[in-house]
Design goal:
Strand 16 and strand 17 (492-498) form a beta hairpin. This protein has helices spanning 29-34, 36-42, 77-89, 108-115, 174-190, 224-229, 233-248, 264-268, 299-312, 331-335, 343-354, 384-395, 400-409, 447-451, 457-469, 474-477, and strands at 10-13, 46-49, 53-54, 66-70, 93-98, 127-129, 138-139, 147-150, 153-159, 194-197, 221-222, 251-254, 276-278, 319-321, 359-363, 481-485, 492-498, 502-509, 515-518, 525-529, 535-537, 540-543, 548-554. The protein is globular and about 80 Å long. It has 16 helices and 23 strands. The protein is of the alpha/beta class. The relative contact order is 0.10.
Amino acid sequence: MSQWWKDKIIYQIWPKSFNDSNGDGIGDIQGIVERLDYLKELGVDIIWLSPVYASPFVDQGYDISDYQSIHPAFGTIQDMDYLLREMERRDMYLIMDLVVNHCSDEHIWFKKACQNPLSVYGKYFYIVPKKDGIPSNVRGYFGGSVWDELPGNPDYLYYHSFHKRQPDLNWENPFLRKEIYYMIDWWLKRGVAGFRIDAIMNIKKDLPFHNYEADREDGMASIVNVVQASEGIGEFLAEMKKETFEKYDAFTVGEVFHEKESELGDFIGTDGYFSTMFDFGPELIGKADVCYEYTEVTPKDYKKTIFASQKRMESIGLLANIIENHDEMRGVSRYIPEGDLCDTSKKALAAVYFFLKGIPVIYQGQEIGMENCPFQDLSEIEDVSTINDYEVALEAGLSEEEAFRCAARYSRDNARTPMQWSDDINAGFTSGSPWFGINPDYKQINAREQLADEHSVLQFYQKMIQLRKDPDYEDIFVEGKFEPLYEDVDNVIAYYRIGEGRRVLLLSNYQRKERELVLPVKPECILLNNMDHITLDGNRIRLEGYQTVILLETN
């Protein structure tokens, strides 16, 4: 497969909160079409569209009841075709979310399995007789056992990694896999350029089902045990690539967790299962099994983690680099120390991640520096995972205030508040009543204001994209090697990208205090600066708090 995608910029749209075209308070496909020129001007090439399929929305569309239908709130299949045509007209590509570890309990396959667990469709899922006992003590991602009684047929149990209304699909069944491959082909023939592949490490189970060592007082064990102990997922992934992606030269991004170090090349090497996979290293910093045990990210943590990711992938493949997505809190609220949040520090974080070796991915609102939402009450929360975190914290003895504070801070809902287009009512997202609360800071943080301000976070993102796409520097930013610098200097994040006979140095003073450094050599010129000025004398440089520059050096 070719690497037509390696110089591209990806932008993730979480459709429910992106742009509402018809005033019903929910973002939709026509709303995306309305904003294509904005994305094109920003410099976006590939849109990753989170689920718009038919769904009861127990898990915000990641519970799919029909893979080949569009949820009416988002539009119709004709709207999808129109979006694809409009994107092609602008030389843009669409990738969709491929959610095939599980489906919705409203999918026709599961309904038929419930009616007759011993039928063909019963074998599309993991269904066992209840009389044999609960097969394992595994705790699902959203809490509670992965085993529940089969709806309408309580003599049987079924397996679900996530919500109980998201039954896992049985990938051991070749007939089920053929159904999935048919569906993938159907979308690729329609013009979709590829997929972001959801929760893919969960498709392989550690069979036969069995207990693991309990890690909480509930007597259950984390589902991570299943992923880490499973063997042979590569057979499924290689087959899926051969039967679908390879035939269309599709671009694929894997949501890959807990992969074995020895298998990295199998995932995104020269002949890997996927084109690329997300670098989740930074996202895992300070995380624990329960939200109240999370620790804050320090600049030292962040630098150490991104440098380690770059090193481990050095000769293997390209990562998809992120600072946030629909499953995380806002990146600027996570990776910038509390009290330091401002436009300058937001630009610093943006530059540090954006020019790493790999494919930059921008999540909607990131380009204007959207921040965590100051939720005040559990009634403002929609996310099932956040509600579970709150309940677990209460069970552990935290007060209601403490439990809410930690659950809300790390909630996925922080990234799911509507996009802030303007300082008009409802942030310009909808003319109606929005499905979810607007972050009250939209008067200060919005796209319209920033499009008119050359010093804005948005215009800084445009400059970064223009620099990365400049053909004069393709050998550096797209193809170039990564080499860290000042690794032992606290609160300095610096690295080289090395091209043909020249290199650039990204240098970020990642702290409030100013700092003076002696550079290895005198730079030829400044390619990017997140401030209007710089103090540079030969190879001595003075940087203000969070000042970040990209300097060109030639041999």
